[in-house]
Amino acid sequence: MSKDQSTDHPLERLVFFSDAVFAIAITLLVIEIEVPDLPKGAPVEEFLHELGGLIPSFVGFLMSFAVIAAFWVTHHQAFALASRFSLRMLPWNLFLLGMIALMPWVTGFLSSNLNQLVPTAVYFGAFTVTALLNARLAFIATEIAAADPDQAAAARLIRMRCIGLAAGAATALAASFLLPENIRFMGLLAVPFWTRLLARGARSARASAPAEERPAE
Amino acid sequence: MSKDQSTDHPLERLVFFSDAVFAIAITLLVIEIEVPDLPKGAPVEEFLHELGGLIPSFVGFLMSFAVIAAFWVTHHQAFALASRFSLRMLPWNLFLLGMIALMPWVTGFLSSNLNQLVPTAVYFGAFTVTALLNARLAFIATEIAAADPDQAAAARLIRMRCIGLAAGAATALAASFLLPENIRFMGLLAVPFWTRLLARGARSARASAPAEERPAE
Amino acid sequence: MSKDQSTDHPLERLVFFSDAVFAIAITLLVIEIEVPDLPKGAPVEEFLHELGGLIPSFVGFLMSFAVIAAFWVTHHQAFALASRFSLRMLPWNLFLLGMIALMPWVTGFLSSNLNQLVPTAVYFGAFTVTALLNARLAFIATEIAAADPDQAAAARLIRMRCIGLAAGAATALAASFLLPENIRFMGLLAVPFWTRLLARGARSARASAPAEERPAE
Amino acid sequence: MSKDQSTDHPLERLVFFSDAVFAIAITLLVIEIEVPDLPKGAPVEEFLHELGGLIPSFVGFLMSFAVIAAFWVTHHQAFALASRFSLRMLPWNLFLLGMIALMPWVTGFLSSNLNQLVPTAVYFGAFTVTALLNARLAFIATEIAAADPDQAAAARLIRMRCIGLAAGAATALAASFLLPENIRFMGLLAVPFWTRLLARGARSARASAPAEERPAE
User: Fold this and answer.
1) How confident is the model at residue A206 (pLDDT cuts 50, 70, 90)?
2) Closest D-chain CA to C40
3) Distance between CA atoms of residues D136 and A121, nearest Å
4) Burial (Cβ within 10 Å: 0-12, 13-18, ≥19) of residue A77
5) CB contact under 8 A, C69 and D94
6) Per the domain annotation, does A167 fall within a domain?
7) Stretch A185-206: mean pLDDT, rounded?
8) What is the dihedral of CA B210, B216, C4, C8, to 10 degrees?
9) Alpha carbon C207 to chain centroid distance?
10) What span, in angstroms and rounded, lies between the C-alpha atoms of C165 and A50?
């Protein structure tokens, strides 16, 4: 029995494959940032001007690095509670990875046209779809834990974080239609707002519950 | 003995290396999708028009994501039944990975020229070769399981899925010569048709067999 | 208890994800090296001339390969001493990986404009930030080991190496403003100087301490 | 003791990191193959003509896929015999990975100028250096096994394969200066010749030795 738990190879392989896709997508983001090539002996100002023109690319890189990292962290935490492989994880995990694999393209589209309506809406639209798939998968992965009194609080916390990501992404999508053009991508700030709010709710529910063992996050 | 089973490092490394190649190939697909770069302040219609022009690229991305994912799933399931490394796995696994590594190119060729005869035939031709290699490898990996009364049904199911993939790919290849140009790539639909048909056959044979333990898929 | 130590899945996954990002970043460096394409039958001299023009790209490749490898080695060594996952590792590890993922771009910028002030300063500036994040993370990862008399010396050695990397990077950054243009990137040599100096200090402190078990590095 | 052997984390991480670099390099090869983009409705002959022009790229892809796979296989086999991490593995492994990471560039250079002297010599020169590093590393990794009567024969076989790879690469390098231009890259055939010859020698030495347990390759 303990052997089953420590060597559930199909689950390990699923997690491993997912990690590889997360890692590749997060590292490919950099490919969308152009490398400026100036004539030899160009003055410092020209270099700084070129770098200034790349600011939207760096903004996109930072945003998407944070977004993919947030999805990886929730995947990491949800599957730390998953003690067994279930066939139901497979399609949702693959849909999620498909959206993660699209992130470098979505980021490139946003960076090349920062604050334009269509790219911003496409970016946050893709983010919202990804967050919904991520929440669906996290609910499946934490199903057994949620029914276990010792792990229920931890499972609830993770689920709330996933719902927070989805609520934040949806808010940012709506905001991209409502905000003035020069701060259109700022809707992203809804994500930390929602995830913290919901995580705090889950934690306070937990604090008021009787003492329980904290799972290894 | 139980130690052998839980720490067959050569097998683990083969599986790991394969997973990495699958993950990289599936994530590199996105590189073939061009990022539209419009002048600042371009109207919404122009953005939508540009996105419309990318539909073939997205179709190719989706198709190949599904195809690589299907190969990964059968690899995952076949090797979950493989309890030991065998040198015979090595060449077939490498041939399979070579074809998987080619998928981003084949996909780019299809997307740039969607529904043209040559790219469609090349795509489904490569798919057919990959599916045949995949089936050969899955038969080797499930050899021991197929001879074990407790696992024979599971092995048969996986093998039937692999044969279904190959039959579907071959049908799509034939269809790319026969279908009218504007729906030429639709031969892909033969894949779910064949895999479900054959999997159903394997499952009904299993249902009529005496009760047996279901393997951890 | 021994089971906990050998299968701390969250820690393993963190290390695994990090390794994947290190591996991808180090392999993507090659993408920044242009492939010369000469007309068929071009004379040998023209090929050699083209290769000569790529020397800055190869210098950049070598430098960044060594830099990423050095970070990977310290990560490897610090986490070999980390017996447990801690939530505090997570943000620092992600910040570090974000900087590692930027390395191919920073390298491309340096190679395209070798010895120019801005690209050299950007390169060593990014290197310094990465080294500081790496040191912060290594200190967290070796915290338990540093408090354990059997492992304290090993932990100190690793920490000194990380500080050496940061001191070397900062020296190279300062040197890029001070050195004459044609040897501007040579500040890199401060890195082996500092790391060896500090590692020697840590080792001599260790040699004078009472005999202790050497950890498996 | 058995625990030590099954969970030598530093060794596992070295192997894992290496596998990731091998996998990424082998999958990046495809990026060097151009995707032909023909006008809609171009005749079949034009597609075939374009594909014909890509034959050198496919030759390069196949060659380098085989070469990287051969290095991965010897790495796999040598480290299957390595029971413990040794610090001496680290630099040689990193040098080897650096050369593996260069393979996509070397391949692109060869493919763009197939059979030209300089690219062919550069290709086989890089191959020779890689094979020498690989042999050095394999000798270190199989050191303990070579001193163990039960594993000595297996260690010798792997070492002979590595020497065969180096001899084959060096022969191909020499041949690139001697062969007529239109079959210049054919020196590659020296590789299977040498590896088989030396492996046969190792195997016949083994067959004449007293019976011994075959290691899990």
Assistant:
1) low
2) D113
3) 54
4) buried
5) yes
6) yes
7) 86
8) 180
9) 27
10) 29
- Residue D213 inside a domain? The answer is no
Neighbour-count burial for C133-156, b at 16+ CB within 10 Å, e otherwise: bbbbbbbbbbbebbeeeebbbbbb
Please list the ranges in chain B whose pLDDT falls under 70: 1-7, 206-217
Partners of D2 on chain B (C-beta within 8 Å) are 3
Which has the closest alpha carbon to D124: D75, D63, D70, D73? D63
Instruction: Please report residues of D whose CB lies closer than 8 A to that of B24.
Output: 23-24, 27-28
Work out the minimum CA distance from A201 to partner chain B, whole angstroms.
Answer: 36
Residue B216 covered by a domain: no
Quick one: three-class SS letters along B127-148?
Answer: HHHHHHHHHHHHHHHCHHHHCC
Collect all residues of chain C within an 8 Å Cβ-Cβ radius of residue D122. 51
How many independent structural domains does chain A possess? Answer: 1
User: pLDDT tier at C79 (50, 70, 90 boundaries)?
Assistant: very high
Tell me which of A44-48, A88-92, C7-11, C24-28 is least confident. Answer: C7-11
CB atoms within 10 A of CB B210: 5
- Residue C185's nearest CA partner among C132, C118, C130 is C118
Picking from A2, A29, A47, the nearest residue to C116 by CB comes out as A47
Contact (CB<8Å) A90/B73: yes
- pTM of the prediction? 0.90
Structural domain including A35 reads 2-208
C8, pLDDT greater than 50: yes
Q: Does the beta carbon of A211 lie under 8 angstroms from any beta carbon of chain B?
A: no
Count of beta carbons in the 10 Å neighbourhood of residue D31:
17
| Long-range pairs for B180-188: beta carbons < 8 A, 24 or more residues apart | B181/B115, B181/B116, B181/B117, B182/B115, B183/B115, B184/B115, B184/B116, B184/B117, B184/B120, B185/B59, B185/B63, B185/B110, B185/B114, B185/B115, B185/B120, B185/B123, B187/B124, B188/B63, B188/B124
Which residue, among A63, A155, B12, D199, has the nearest Cα to A163 in the 3D structure?
A155
In angstroms, the Cα distances linking D167 to A37, D72, D172, D204 are: 41, 17, 9, 20
Contact A210, A70 (CB under 8 A): no
Residues A199 and D51: their CA atoms lie apart, in Å, by 56
**Residue that has been written with the tokens 């801005």 in this structure:** C118
> Quick check: A38 contacting B, CB < 8 Å?
no
The predicted-structure confidence for D63-96, as pLDDT tens digits, reads as follows 999 999 999 999 999 999 998 888 899 999 999 9
A chain contacts of residue C9, beta-carbon cutoff 8 Å: 80
On average, the pLDDT of chain C sits at: 88
Q: Please say if the pLDDT value at position C201 is more than 90.
A: no
Longest CA pairwise span in chain D (Å): 69
Question: Quick check: is D40 in a domain?
Answer: yes
Q: What is the pLDDT of residue B8?
A: 74
